[in-house]
Amino acid sequence: MEQQKNALIEVKDLHVVFRDPSRTVHAITGLSTEIKSGEVVVVIGPSGCGKSTFLRTLNLLETPTSGKIIFEGNDLTDEKCDVNLHRQRIGMVFQHFNLFPNMTIKKNMTLAPVQLKKKTQEEADEKAMELLKRVGLDDRCDAYPGQLSGGQKQRVAIVRALMMEPDVMLFDEPTSALDPEMVGEVLDVMRELAKAGMTMVVVTHEMGFAKEVADRVLFMSEGSIIEEGSPKEIFDNPQNRRTQEFLSKVLH
Amino acid sequence: MQEWFSKIAFDFRQSFIDSDRWQALLSGLGTTLLITVLALVIGVVLGVLVAVVRSSYDQKKKKGGVLGLLNKICYVYITVIRGTPMMVQLLIMYFVIMASSTNTMLVATLSFGINSGAYLAEIIRGGIMAVDRGQSEAGRSLGLSYVQTMRFIVIPQAIKTILPALGNELIALLKETSIVNVIGMKDITKWAINVQGRTYQAFMPFLGIAAVYLVIVIILTKLVSIMERRLANDGTAKKRSH
Ligand SMILES: Nc1ncnc2c1ncn2[C@@H]1O[C@H](COP(=O)(O)OP(=O)(O)OP(=O)(O)O)[C@@H](O)[C@H]1O
Ligand SMILES: [Mg+2]
User: Fold this and answer.
1) Domains of chain B from N-terminus onward
2) Probe site for chain B from A96, A102, A111 (most B CB atoms < 10 A)
């Protein structure tokens, strides 16, 4: 019973198939898992194994071919479910930031909460400044995304998602597009979020971050989770041969 | 030399001043501009509708249904309109489809509007498609609806590429309207034909209207490039504070 109450997201036998005219890709092949409230889950695995697809399916940016995604007790795959409403509670951070280039940083942050009537413009402005201060960018609130460095952009992208006060944050390789010297500043923000108790699902190649911050590590291969456990279990004593191979490649 | 000048002055007077021909020219100009502007409005409305149908169909995973049918209709529309000459479309509209109507302005604006809609649809669709997919994904992931995402995020960025093309479509339309005399409309081209018929002068009336078209086109081209510069500057070049 306790277990059930804590499950924020339940994924049940998820399949995602992409059908292009030229080929059919079975990107997710029967994936089941649970994300508990307050948990930090790191997803690792070789390129093309379906990490991004898994993450993007959690807020229905990709449509499941079959299976269920239950978020806070609501089945997102149900036709009658208002996905827009639930997406407000699921923040997402992309590899390429996806800031709106035609708006100032502040406008980037306040657009959704104001349009979705979660806040008045004044409340949203105030909240935006507070969050920007937290990531050390309050002096850039009137700048446009084109004027920021990659690391700054990604920090803005994170606080933009936080403006909606989500219950979970999804990160798809948030530091992969950054110059090495900027990775740290973004990971710092994520570390703080984790410390503050945010539920997070993070796809990353930053194994140091995974070891330090993750409550649980999922190893994916060919569209499903083939091994999972605490960072200690996965990194120090991987059981599956493919996990071992993958780790020996990325850790050296 | 002097003879030549006085001949020019005479020709000019005969073509533009006598019998108040300049008034007829002005009213012809009004007709030309009115058809152009109304046709562009119809074209933009049709173009946006078709572009939205086509691009949302492209994005959809499950094909078929009502959207599929609409998409097919749009496809046929674009193919037919772009595959036949404007003059022929105008004649068909006037003599076949709207044969019972005597309102040539209505026939002409509809005909040019429908024609320009087919071209604008592809321009607008191109503009929408050119916006990075990550932009609409970011909007949707924040909980914004499809329409809100289009309105606040995608369309404003698409306009950057669409607006200059829209200006060019306006210029093309203006020039194309010179065929409306085939359905009996008195635009500026018809004016020149009339003057030539009455005075047996070709030089003044025809070069005269060429100059009128050219001046309008130059003005519009200027406006388009000003607009392009404004849009290019928006947000990226200004206020670089660090
Ligand atoms: N929209 C799509 N259409 C067709 N195939 C796709 C699409 N998105 C992903 N795929 C395919 O699905 C598979 C899984 O892709 P995915 O991007 O989820 O992998 P990934 O683990 O995130 O890889 P990476 O580490 O390179 O980001 C790949 O074979 C990919 O080519
Ligand atoms: Mg990926």
Assistant:
1) 12-241 (1.10.3720.10)
2) A102
